[in-house]
Write a structure and sequence with these properties.
Elements lengths: L2 H9 L3 H26 L4 H16 L7 H10 L12 H19 L5 H20 L6 H6 L1 H17 L6 H12 L14
Pfam family, one: DUF416
Organism: Fluctibacter halophilus
Protein name: YjaG family protein
C-alpha cells in the first residue's frame, strides 16, 4: 500500500473509526507537543492532554456528551505560533495541536475529512523532521525510503487493518492506546514520558 493508498483508505473511515484513527495518531504525536512545551515553557501540557483524554473517553463511551466547542477553544488557546519561536520543535507541536483541532471538527461534523488531515499532518511532520535532521539533501524517494517514514507508513497501515476488525468501546480504545505508545517513542522517534 503506497502513501497515496493510505490516504485513500483513511478517507473511507467513518464515525467512530475515523475518530479512533485520528486519536491514535495524535497519541503518537503528543510527546512532540510535550517536549516543545517543556523546553520552552510555552503552555501547560495538561490542557492538550485533557482534550485528547476527552476524545479517548468519547471513543470509549460514544453516547457521552462532550462540549466540543469548548474543547476546540482550549486547543486553540494552546496552539503555538511559529513566528514566536526560532526552534524547530514548534512545528511538530503545531502539527499535534492542529491534528487535535481537526479531530474535534470531525467529531462535530464540521470536517468529515478530519482523519485524512491528521494522517497527512503526521506523515508531514515525519517528512519535515527527516529533512531538518538529514546531513544530506533528500529527494522524495530518499524521504520515502527513510526508516522513520517507512515506520510511519507501516504504522498507519497497521492501524487501518486493526480498525477494520473493531466495533468500538473500552477494550478497543485500550488496544489503540497501547498500540500508539508501545514503542515508547513518538512518530519522530522522540522518547515518551512513561507517566
Amino acid at each position: 500500500m503506497s502513501k497515496l493508498n493510505t490516504f485513500a483508505a483513511v478517507r473511507q473511515l467513518k464515525g467512530w473509526h475515523a475518530v479512533a484513527f485520528a486519536a491514535t495518531l495524535i497519541e503518537r504525536m503528543a510527546p512532540n507537543y510535550t517536549l516543545f512545551c517543556e523546553s520552552t515553557g510555552y503552555a501547560e501540557v495538561s490542557q492538550f492532554r485533557n482534550v485528547l483524554n476527552a476524545v479517548w473517553e468519547w471513543l470509549s463511551v460514544p453516547k457521552m456528551k462532550i462540549n466540543l466547542a469548548v474543547q476546540l477553544e482550549r486547543i486553540e488557546d494552546v496552539t503555538p505560533h511559529p513566528s514566536e519561536y526560532d526552534s524547530y520543535g514548534v512545528y511538530p507541536a503545531i502539527d499535534a495541536a492542529v491534528s487535535l483541532s481537526s479531530t474535534l471538527l470531525l467529531m462535530q461534523g464540521e470536517d468529515p475529512q478530519g482523519a485524512v488531515v491528521v494522517s497527512k499532518l503526521s506523515q508531514g511532520a515525519v517528512e519535515s523532521f527527516i529533512e531538518a535532521t538529514s546531513e544530506v539533501a533528500l529527494d522524495s524517494e530518499g524521504i520515502k525510503a527513510h526508516p522513520l517514514m517507512q515506520w510511519e507508513i507501516e504504522f498507519q497501515q497497521e492501524l487501518l487493518t486493526l480498525l477494520a476488525q473493531m466495533k468500538g468501546g473500552r477494550e478497543d480504545v485500550a488496544t489503540l492506546k497501547a498500540l500508539a505508545t508501545q514503542e515508547g517513542v513518538s512518530n519522530l522517534g522522540i522518547e515518551c514520558d512513561p507517566s
